[in-house]
Each structure stands twice: as C-alpha cells, then as structure tokens.
Input
Amino acid sequence: MNRIATAALAIVLSSFADLHAEERPNIVVLFADDMGFSDVGCFGSEIQTPHIDRLAATGLRFTHFYNAGRCCPSRASILTGLYPHQADIGHMAGDLAVRGYRDRLSLQAVTLAEVLGAAGYHTLMTGKWHLGWRDEGSPTARGFQHFYGTRGYIDSYFTIVPRTEIYLNDRLVLPAGKDPVHHLQPDKEWYTTDVFTDYAIHFIDQVRQQDNRPFFLYLAYNAPHFPLHAKPEDVQKYRGKYRSGWQHFRKQRYKRLVELGVISRQWDLSDLDVPSWDSLTDKRRDDLDFKMALFAAIVDRLDQNIGRVIEHLERIGELDQTLVIFLSDNGGTRETGLFGIKGETNTVNNYQEWGRQGGWTSSYGQGWANLSNTPFRRYKRENHEGGISAPFIVHWPNRIRQKGRLRHQPAHLIDLMPTFVEVAEAQYPDEFQGNKIQPMEGHSLTPYFDSDESQSRTLYWEHEGNRAIRDGDWKLVGLRNQNWELYQIAKDRTELRNLSAEYPAKLEQLKHKWDVWADKVGVLTPSEFEQARKNQRKKKTP
Output
C-alpha cells in the first residue's frame, strides 16, 4: 500500500475511532467523605444541596446502596471492584505484611483507571487517594494519567498537615504548611473542596484540547470529613438553625425520607443513643448548634462545587453523554464521643484559635452523627446500616429514561467496576502487567437503569472485627467481639428486632457463609490482627 493510501486509511480509522469515542460516555465519580445516609436534600436533609438534588431529579436514587464502612476500604473497593481485603486494604493503608492488610493496592487487582485507560479513556483524578504513600502505589502508578491531590488522608481544608502533601502527577508541589498556594489561581484562597474542583475542570479542559476521547474522572473530595473547616459565608446560612436539637431533626428527616419513598413506613426510626437535647446546658446547646452549622456549611460548599462540575459539563456540551455517580465512603462518624474531637476545649468561644487548625482538632460528635445516619443505627467503622448505607445517585441523560425514580435493589461499591466496564466497552483482564488478576465480585447496575425488578444477592463486610452479611432480605451483623445479630431487612432495615433467638438455623447458615467468605478473602480475626500489628511494631523497633 502506498503512502497516500496508508494516510487515507489512517484518517478513516481515526474518524471511526472518534465517532466510537463519542458513543461511549464520560464517567464521573463524585465521592464524598464521612457523609451519612440522610445528609443531602434528596435523601431527607434540611441542608441545602440543590445541585445534588438536581442529579437525583433527573437521574436515579438507589436506596439500598452500600459502601465498606470506612475511607480506605471503600476507596479500595470502588477502584478495584473487589472486597477491600482482596484489594489488600482490609483495614487502613498501613502495612501489616499480611495478605489483605498492606499499604498499597494489590497487584492482583486492577483499578478502574487501568481498565478504562486500556480502553482508550483519559483517566483523571483529584482529591484524596488514601491508598498508600509509596511511589509504586500512587495514583499515577495505578493508571491515572492526570492526578492532583494527596496520596494520604487530608484532615484539613485551609492548610496542609504532615503526610497530606499535595502532588501534581508524581511531583510534590505543596509540602505541609499553613499557607498553601493555589497554583491555578494564586489570588484565590486555598480550600480543598474548591481547589480539587478547579483541578478537575482544568484536567477536563486539558484532555479536550487533545481529542474527543471519553474521560474517566474520579473526584474524591475530603468533604465533609472533619475537621470543621468552613467558609464564613456558608456558616452564616446555618448558624442558629440547629438549636432545636438532634431529636427534632432526626424526626424531620425520618418523616421526609418516608414521604420521598426512600425508606419504608414499616421501618421505625432507630432509638436515640445519645442524651436528650433538653438535658444539655444552654451553653452546650449553643456550641453544638455551631458545630452542626459548620458541618452543614461544609456539605453546602461540597454541593456548590458539584454544581460547578455539572455546569462545566453542560457548558462544553457533554453532560448528556456523561455517566455521573454520587456517593459517600461511610456513614457519619461518632469518633471521640458525644461532643466530638476536642469538644470540651475547642468550642464556639475560641473558634478563632482552632477554626483553621488542621488535624484532629474538631468534629460534630455522636449526636449529630446519629442525625446524619437517620434512620439507622450505629456509625462509621461499623457494619450496621448506619455505618455502611450510602446516598447513591446515578445520572446519565442519554441513557436513563425513568428520571427521578427510586431503585430499591441492593447494590455495593463492587458493582461500579462491572458497570463501567460494560458502558465503556472495556475488557476486564485475566492478567495485567504480568500478574494474575482476581475476577470482579460485583454485578453491572445497568439493568436497574430501566427496571425496579429486584434481584436477590449476597454481600459481605468486615472491618476491625465488625462484620456482616446480607443475603437476600436477611442480614447477620455483629460488633467486634460481640454476638451476631439477625435482622429481616425488608421488615426492619433499622435493625431494631434481633431475630437470632427465633431463627437459630438461619443464623448458623449465614454465619457459615460469612466464615467461608472471610477465609476466601483473608479476613484476620481481631486477635490475629492485633498480633500482626505487634509483629510489625517489633520490626520497626531498633
């Protein structure tokens, strides 16, 4: 074939590839951090979230969607389509030198970025990685072509604390410090939620200058995770709003959830597990109103930034052909108790001292976490419904016809990999870079885009000895070193009527299934976990 014919063929093939690229959707994952089931408007909240609500009104809400109960495990699961232990993040991103408990994603797992990148997608990430600090486990080492954010946790919005340094691709661009520079907009104040959105939009524009191939964007916000760092203009909207207390707002959210159809009237509101609001002093109630106002302001700012992403996709004419997912990594957190982190010392009275101080300096406390997880029991780290139930929205105008509908089928983070593989026409590999790859654990969600027909399935959890299995409408769940509890989810999703004594055979059946799964994925018992931790500490001791 002569050069002219070869060039002509290349043009034809290129045009065909461009046409095919337009048919496949962009994929955008908007991942919130420490947001409870009912913290956004379309899931019952009083917090103003019009942009997230818009996604729900023109998309689908899944009412039985599950995460892995904590940040690192959920991030591992969403990116690999595996249970956290299979991805080597059975606990947090710290190396115990034991299968399932490492400080980077398993090499026997592939990431969404690796799979979609191999299918011709641009792969973009901004925000919180929290899956290991090492170069070989970084976002760019695991398939992301463009990355801006932290390899670790964040625990700050206005500053950068140690081990949360900011990278642009593989280059360290912002060390720990109090006055980080926003390199895209040097005159703009650094605030993580805003900055991560700015870079997400920047990356979209960068790849669009190259070609029209679809992109995958993983925008992993740290909002609304503690500390309570909020912008003054956002706080003003909510200061004083919460003086009626957590009981009042739990009842309001519960009523709204029932009206929306998100939860069944059969499910009673779980019991308040904190002191009555009226039992607190006026001074304490004022302080707690302020803490919840800060949390609400962080959620509000998150929604504003999601609105910016959606509006940018509209502006470039690509919203209709973009599959957008919104969800959270775990339920609301009660860490350090009723009044939250340093709740006795960091109060409204000395807010100027701690309002921009990073690290474990403030949180909203157990009472407001109980509100975040309405109507469910328990919290982040645990496997009761309050810890693992996520607000989940799917938005894709070109594909979803039944706009604004609810879907009640059980679904899980492990389902995103098969869903994205399907819509991207990608290939999930048996081997990758010389390593044998574990098969996907989940199911594609695309059949649910058009149907509310339910499908029975079995899902599993374990974290820090907290454990659960949901098998059809039955759920077996237990706290660390405590007895199993048995619930019939269809009638009692708020887990108030423990049926373990009435159905001992069902308990044993589900326990056996969970034991088989735990052995398969490499779950350590609490004592084995503690021993592995001790062994690692001994190795590090000179």
About this structure: The two ends are 68 Å apart (CA to CA). Confidence is low (pLDDT under 50) at residues 1-21.
